[in-house]
Design brief:
- By secondary structure, the chain is of the alpha+beta class.
- The chain folds into 2 domains: about 5-85, no CATH class; about 95-220, Immunoglobulin-like, CATH 2.60.40.
- Helix content is about 30%, strand content about 35%.
- The protein has helices at about 5-20, 25-40, 50-90; strands spanning about 95-100, 100-105, 110-115, 120-125, 130-135, 145-150, 165-175, 180-195, 200-205, 210, 215-220.
- The strands form 2 sheets. Strands 1, 3, 6, 8, 9, 10 and 11 form a 7-stranded antiparallel β-sheet that branches.
- β8 and β9 form a beta hairpin.
- α2 packs antiparallel against α3 (about 50-90).
- The termini are far apart.
- The relative contact order is 0.15.
């Protein structure tokens, strides 16, 4: 390609760049540049066939990647729609989820999961103001899902009022004294489902909002 051809192509490229400032070139922009390059070439000294073939191959690859990107977006949209539809089926179901909140109704089951076998586990229960109301030494506990049934009494043996909200934490170590990861779990009934900013949220017992990914187990109906 001679100097005049290169100049003409560069002018077209400059126009394309000025019109797409801050944006990446798509397959349509690439095709327009290729067409302008062909129009601007010197008929007596046309573009090298090898170079032209290489550019066509680049355009073909760009088109394929664009189509793949479009297909992936469609697939993700379908998956999100399907997930939202399935989430609505959870309304009225009781689930187990990541969380350390519990409502006391006489007694309360405090669920948790251990990543490994623990030689010692200590469970601490706090009231709504953050004050410690009871601590329990659970001893040796195997890895996996576990549960402690709290009788609803504080550290002095007094029965606490029903309906109160409490939280609990766990500290676990193995036989070598190394910490073992303990994840508090709680349960409740799904009362509604919300979709916000491409995320699915569940409302539990009408007052706690969690992400769908926090659900650990579906226990069934009430």
């Amino acid at each position: 390609m001679d100097i005049s051809s290169a100049t003409g192509t560069q002018q077209v490229a400059n126009k394309q760049q000025s019109g797409t400032a801050g944006k990446s070139l798509g397959k349509d922009d690439f095709l327009r540049l290729l067409t302008a390059q062909l129009q601007a070439q010197n008929p007596l000294n046309p573009m090298d066939a090898t170079g032209f073939t290489a550019q066509l191959a680049q355009f073909s690859s760009l088109e394929q990647m664009t189509n793949i990107d479009s297909d992936l977006k469609t697939l993700l949209a379908y998956q999100s729609s399907l997930q939202n539809t399935m989430a609505t089926d959870l309304i009225g179901k009781k689930i187990k989820m990541t969380g350390n909140g519990v409502t006391l109704n006489g007694t309360a089951a405090l669920n948790y999961s251990l990543q490994g076998n623990a030689a010692a586990v200590t469970l601490s229960i706090f009231n709504a103001t953050g004050a410690l109301v009871k601590s329990a030494d659970l001893g040796k506990v195997a890895a996996g899902n576990n549960s402690f049934l709290w009788d609803g009494k504080d550290k002095n043996g007094n029965q606490l009022s029903a309906g109160g909200r409490y939280t609990f934490t766990l500290a676990a170590t193995d036989s070598s004294g190394n910490a073992v990861t303990a994840t508090p779990l709680t349960s409740g009934t799904v009362t509604s489902v919300a979709f916000d900013n491409n995320m699915t949220y569940l409302t539990i017992d009408g007052n706690t909002r969690i992400q769908l990914g926090d659900v650990r187990e579906i226990l069934g109906g009430n």
